[in-house]
Write a structure and sequence with these properties.
Blueprint lengths: L2 H15 L4 H16 L35 E5 L3 H12 L6 E5 L12 H4 L1 H8 L4 H17 L3
Parallel strand pairs: 1-2
Helix pairs in contact: 5-6
Length: about 150
């Protein structure tokens, strides 16, 4: 499986398991398309075009060739320098390692302006688990606003 195939499979599986409906996901992607189309021409090349087809703001291929075959990978959440150094040491010791798969990586270049792409799903998860929507929003929206403004 290549890096690109693994990436596409992750998005497909995410959509299949997403607590939001396909209709909701489609509406979000349509909203992003409108957002893109409303941009001045000079800003369009800087828009993350992946947002138009991938509903997950924290799922991207950050580095490396997309056609590279992946047989073994180091995977984790909030991967940082320490884990990259561990991966490098493992490779030095002969451990086969083709990729690092990181959730919440800092290398995607996604700014706080796209924080809704990765945080609002939490409200839907709370609702799916039985929390009334208004209560979920009451708890989570202040936290999301802190992330938006960078006052965390």
């Amino acid at each position: 499986m290549t890096v690109r195939e693994l990436y596409e499979a992750a998005i497909e599986l995410g959509i299949a398991l997403d607590p939001r409906s396909q209709e909701t996901l489609d509406a979000e992607l349509a909203r992003r398309k409108e957002e893109f189309e409303a941009l001045p021409e000079w800003k369009k090349p800087y828009f993350d075009h992946e947002r138009l087809r991938n509903p997950y703001g924290d799922v991207r291929i950050v580095n490396g060739p997309e056609d590279a075959e992946v047989f073994t990978a180091l995977a984790g959440i909030n991967i940082g320098t320490d884990e990259f150094l561990i991966a490098d040491r493992l490779k030095d010791k002969g451990v086969p390692l083709d990729a690092i798969i990181a959730h919440h990586t800092s290398g995607t270049g996604i700014g706080r302006s796209h924080i809704d792409d990765i945080t609002l799903i939490n409200i839907d998860i709370f609702v799916r688990e039985g929390v009334p929507r208004k209560e979920a929003e009451k708890v989570l929206l202040p936290w999301i606003d802190e992330w938006r403004t960078g006052s965390d």
